[in-house]
Amino acid sequence: MTHFLAVVLFALFASTVFGITMREKPKSMVRYGIYCFVLFVSSAIALSWLMYLIAR
Amino acid sequence: MAIEDTKNSAAAASAQTGAYKGFVYLPLIAGWLVPGAGHFLLRKWVRGALLSASILGMFVLGLAMQGKLYANVHDLLDLLGLAGDLGNGLLFVVSRLLNLGADQVQVTTADWGTRFIVVAGLLNVIAAVDAHNLRTGRKS
User: Fold this and answer.
1) CB B117 within 8 A of CB B88
2) Which of A10, A21, A24 sits opposite B127 (nearest CB)?
3) Which residues of A touch B109 (CB under 8 A)?
């Protein structure tokens, strides 16, 4: 398993739970779940690049 | 007008609560012991199935990555890890009884696995509290 795949799976599972528990209507659950997933993955990518540039 | 709205929402919440019978804390306890069970008790089948699949998936992946199950508390961080693991309810107990999970983290993926197991427990607690909120009518 690659680190990125682990991040994607983590984001998928956590976003699903966040979406269901933090919103009331199904439509807003899906929207919030997608929002969390995108934030998880994009912040992981951004932080990875930041750490790569710091380590150079 | 505002008072009327408040009365209407209180009536709606009370009607929602009245739809569920039995011990108020049952969905909370069932949801903690078995992921998704609290929502199944309240007949929220799809939500329960999704929560169950997510939490079980995260826990099983954690074990597959040779993640550690906390059993002893040597320092404060271990205590936090144990608290997170206990959130998994029966999954944690059964896994401990079957000696699943690594005793020590030896490979990189095991470290990720340990986090997966802890986070699965924390997500399970959130799901159980959500089931309790549905039961009491705080959430529709």
Assistant:
1) yes
2) A21
3) 1, 6
Q: How far is CA B134 from CA B25, B35, B48, B110, in A?
A: 11, 16, 12, 36
Q: pTM value?
A: 0.87
pLDDT tens for chain B, residues 1 to 140: 445 555 555 445 544 555 677 889 999 999 999 999 999 999 999 999 999 999 999 999 999 999 999 988 888 888 999 999 999 999 999 999 999 988 787 888 899 999 999 999 999 999 999 999 999 999 87
What is the domain range of residue A7?
A: 3-55
How many domains, chain A?
A: 1
The Cβ-side half-sphere exposure at B61, using a 13 Å CA radius, reads: 22
Q: Which residues of B touch A21 (CB under 8 A)?
A: 51, 126-127, 129-130
Which residues of chain A from 13 to 42 reach within 8 Å of chain B, CB to CB?
Answer: 13-14, 16-18, 20-21, 24
User: What is the ipTM, given to two decimal places?
Assistant: 0.90
